[in-house]
Structure formats: structure tokens, C-alpha cells
Amino acid sequence: MTHQYKFIDVAPIAGSIGAEIKNVSLTDDFSTEVFDEITHAFHEHAVIFFRGQELTPEQHKSFSRRFGDLLEVPFVKALEGHPEILPVTRAAKETSKRNFGGLWHSDMSYAATPPLGSVLYSKVIPPVGGDTMWTNMYVAFERLSPAMKNMLEGLNAVHSPVKSYGSNGVLINNADPAHKMDIQTGEGADTEVIHPVVRIHPATGRKALYVNSTYTLRFEGMTEEESAPLLNFLFSHCVRPEFTCRFRWTPGAVAVWDNRCTQHLAMNDYQGFDRELYRTTIVGDRPIPVQK
User: Fold this and answer.
1) Neighbouring C-beta atoms of residue 90, cutoff 10 Å
2) Is 264 a known active-site residue?
3) Active site includes 279?
4) Tens digits of residue pLDDT in 195-221
5) Is the dihedral of CA 102, 105, 110, 114 positive or negative?
6) Looking at 45, 201, 264, 275, which residue is catalytic?
7) Picking from 96-100, 175-179, 277-281, which range would have the lowest pLDDT averaged per residue?
8) Which of these, 106, 165, 205, 271, is most buried using a 10 Å CB contact count?
9) Contact 95, 272 (CB under 8 A)
10) What is the DSSP secondary structure assignment for residue 232, as one 8-state letter?
């Protein structure tokens, strides 16, 4: 049953995930009642959107902190003077085919304590392209067979930043002088952490799949070769079109998503145009496994 909101206007944008919240200014100091409804929409729809915002870096951080403390993202240079803000930028003149966030992932699942969520604010948007997609990892789990669910609930998986940020990582800066994002390998780029394959969301109590093709390497106790058939099935299953939404950015739009029950993908279809967004990342907690 859809929740009835008293203070905000919530419009779903797809059947499984995502909703736009209208007629709210994020520069306002909301009442507790308004923010409680924003939080409810966040938990109900997993990713929420606002348009027509004009945020300073301090206002961006202030709104983000309503959800929790902010963390500094490793490997990528932060916005000058604002270590909690990550520039997500691409220049029209860049020749690299790489695209930050261009594979399905949950932000920083390689961390021992992965983020609760992220808040992304758009400043410069190409005239076409550059959309972002999200997928619902609750629904991805729920659509599996009972036998598959039961098996996965007993598994853990190994996550690592090595493929993206290791010495040979695909995102590490090359010699392209036009490349706007400063991404470097560093301490911890080859570390591994173990998380449950199915996690319990601490706020909703729902079960969500927690593997992604960017940072999940293998199942605990198995080789990558042994893990690949099942992981590849899950990677494909998780992003079935009916589990997803696609958001068309406009300047001044804000997306707030829950990294504990979603994955997202930045479309790489705007070569020759500038794109400039800014992200804060909210401190989370260790994934809760299913108790069997």
C-alpha cells in the first residue's frame, strides 16, 4: 500500500524504484515532520529526486547530514576546500573512453563499513545523454526462486576496489591532459573485505542482494573461476529492466539513493559535452547478514 504523504508531493517514476519529490527546496530548514516524510519516501522508493535546486557546497553538505555523518571518498580528489564533496565530472575534450560510475555498482561496497547512501547534485548537464540508472536489490532478491534464496542467504562474498583503483585499475588517470577527475591508486587499493551476499536493511528489515560487478570478486572460500557462473547470473539478474529506473538529469537536480538496497550506473553516451555533478557520501554501518 502506498504511503499517504501530508507535507510533500511524491511521484513514482518507475514501477520498482525511484520517485520525484516536488515543491521542496533543499535550502530550507525543514521541520522534523517534513524530513520524516522525505526519509519515508527514501525508504519506500530507494532513490528519490528533487529538481530546480540551487545549492552551495555548504547547503549540499547540510542537507546530506540530515541523513547522517559524511565521509571522505578515497582515491578521488575532493572539491577544493570541501573534503566531503566528490566532483563527478567529465570534460568535452576528454579522449578517454572511461566513465566514472559507468558499470553497475553500489558505492564503496569494498569498504568494511560501506556507505548508507549518496547525494548527487547536478550543475552542468549535456544536452542529450548522461542519464543515471538505478536498480532495486530488494526486488532482485525477491524474484529469485526459494531454493536460490536459501542458498544465497548462507554465502558471503569478497569485495575489493582493486579492479577500479589498483595500480592497473580501469579508473586510474592516464596521460589525457583534459581529464578533469583526479583519480589515483593509493593505500588500501588492493584490500579485500567480506560481506553477506544477502543483507538485512537496518531501517526496513527487508532482504536485499549485495553483490555487484564492479567490486565483488568471488564468494568467500571459492576461487574466482568457481564463483563466476553464479556471480555472473546474479549480476545480470540484478539489472533486469523491470527492476530499474532511469533519471534524466537537469541542472539543479538532486538524487538521494540508498546504497544498501540499490545499484546504479552512469550512462556513457555524451562524448563531446561537459558534465559536472557533485556527490556527498553518508556514513553507514556493517551489512547485517540473514540469521539462519
Assistant:
1) 26
2) yes
3) yes
4) 999 999 999 999 999 999 999 999 999
5) positive
6) 264
7) 175-179
8) 106
9) no
10) H
Catalytic residue chosen out of the listed positions 90, 105, 159, 179: 105
DSSP string over the chain = -PPPPSSSEEEESSSSS-EEEES--TTS---HHHHHHHHHHHHHHSEEEE-S----HHHHHHHHTTTS-B-PPSSBPPBTTBTTEEEEEE-TT------TT-S-B-TTTTSSS--SEEEEEEEE--SS---EEEEEHHHHHHTS-HHHHHHHTT-EEEE-SHHHHSTT-TTS--S-TT--S-B---TTTT--EEEESEEE-TTT--EEE---TTTEEEETTS-HHHHHHHHHHHHHHHT-GGGEEEE---TT-EEEEETTTEEEEE----TTS-EEEEEEEE---PPEEPP-
Q: 45, 60, 82, 107: which is the annotated catalytic residue?
A: 107
In terms of DSSP bridges, do strands 19-22 and 9-12 run parallel, antiparallel, or are they unpaired? antiparallel
Q: What is the CA radius of gyration of the chain?
A: 19
Is 285 one of the annotated active-site residues of the chain? no
Average confidence (pLDDT) over 40-44: 98
Model confidence over 122-144: pLDDT tens digits? 999 999 999 999 999 999 999 99
